[in-house]
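Give me structure tokens for this 495-residue protein.
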Amino acid sequence: MQNYLNFHSVIQQVLTEDVPEYHTIEILQREGKVSQWLDINLIPLQDCDSQTMGILVTFTDITEQKLAEQALKQAHLELHQFKTTLDMALEGVFIREADTLKLSYVNQGITKLLGYTETELLQTIPAVFNLEIAEPSLSTSLDSLRNGSQQTLTFETIRQHQNGTVIPIEISLQYIEVPEQMSRFIGIVRDITERKHAQALLQQAIDTVAQINIELSQFKMTLDMTLDIVLMRDANTLKFTYANQGAVKQLGYTQAELLQLMPVQLTPEFTPDSLREWLAPLVTGAQSSMTFETVAQHKAGHLILVEIFVQYIKVPGVNRFISIARDITERKQAEIALLRAKKLAESAKLEADIANQAKSTFLANMSHELRTPLNSILGYTQILSRDPQLTAKQREGINIIQRSGDYLLTLINDILDLAKIEAGKIELLPTDFNFIHFIQSITDLFSLRAQQKGISFHYEALSHLPKGIQADEKRLRQILINLLGNAIKFTEKGE
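Here you go.
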């Protein structure tokens, strides 16, 4: 009944039909004020002759009841919207009563994760968390949430899927306390299967590398105890990759110096071509090994007559020549003296030519040997950086690897350019590039290096810089890296 005319018609109906009427009306108030609700009862009154002589009208104010009903309806609507939102989340969400730990709510994310229906999960035993955490430790942690000493609790554990498979998960708990209501624990569950798999693969790789290093260390220790010269070289480049202490003692070079030499620098009887031809039967498999006599050149310049045993080792991806040389000077003293006299006149020119050629070959080979693993490292950093589940700390570590790899690649190019400069073959290739971005990349690189050394690095343009310039970007970067690298290197403290 919205107006006076409706109310008047109801009164007439009660008087005419002699039947009680019951109505609820809303009395609209002025704008800004709450409406008033009334329950109205209209009961006909009769005289002694059973004639209707009037109407008894009673009014009951039910405004508070109506407002409570509206509030409850709105609360149910908001609760439905809240649950719908949670059901759309990919992560599992649950609510447990703080006292009994009984589940009172689970979203669709947790039902999909564990394979159980909502009803099945809500009927699980309250005390069971299915954790790997000991009960006393869990109780202590939950108490720390209840008393407020800890805001959130995050831990890793395992849960069993409905099909029997075990799922590694991460649970984050928070204690919610509402006055005059039951306190609850709200939990978020994340499937960390992929993270665990990645961690296991990484640990497996670390363990494998550690084991290889142990075995390699033992192998090298054994070789270092021998008096003979033991050298290992790459089958493709003939560059030395290993030299034992016997080689250091008998040839006079340090181990680092030996690894910088090519075989023809130690065995002047061979040229690169003749050495490859000599070793060809090993590569083709025509011979399993060979033993021959030759001379090795000491760092001091004198020749040592040696007997060399060579074997070709072929492993997928890694092909090596292993040489074991034994000093037979005492046995061949007369022949060595004659051979040395014959070779002395040619050694100076041969050494210079071999050194120049070996230097160029070494730089080219070193670039190839370093670039291949470095490109692999940079490639994997790009792949790993796309993983959306990386933590901020993991992503920062990957970015550091990327920047360091780029810097190392620049250093490799610098070494090759140094050889070109010495040979007079350096060329400038000017191009147009963004100078502001160029300066920023240099600044970012050396800010990190300065931070690692514990000094401050500040960049401030003293004048207006052009946005774009034409220059050889690579050479300009090399110059700035060399200057700033020395500045950081020789700055012990400050900025």
